[in-house]
């Protein structure tokens, strides 16, 4: 599988969820609650995520132990 074609720079909710390994409903709840803070944009009625923002979210939430506090 070619990741560049599977994950273009703007992802819809289902693609972003697969990329992060979470459910689409998790992302929908995050958009409503603002937590966790995962940047997104609306293009018309379509919700889109930049792959670079998802990568930054992953990087910001990296841990080395399970006892580390959650990111702010």
From TrEMBL:
Identify one Pfam family in the record: HTH_17
Q: Could you tell me which SUPFAM superfamilies the record lists for this protein?
A: Putative DNA-binding domain (SSF46955)
Q: Which InterPro entries match?
A: DNA-bd_dom_put_sf (IPR009061), HTH_17 (IPR041657)
Tell me which residues make up the Helix-turn-helix domain. Answer: 10-61
Identify this protein by name: Helix-turn-helix domain-containing protein
The scientific name of the source species is Hyphococcus flavus
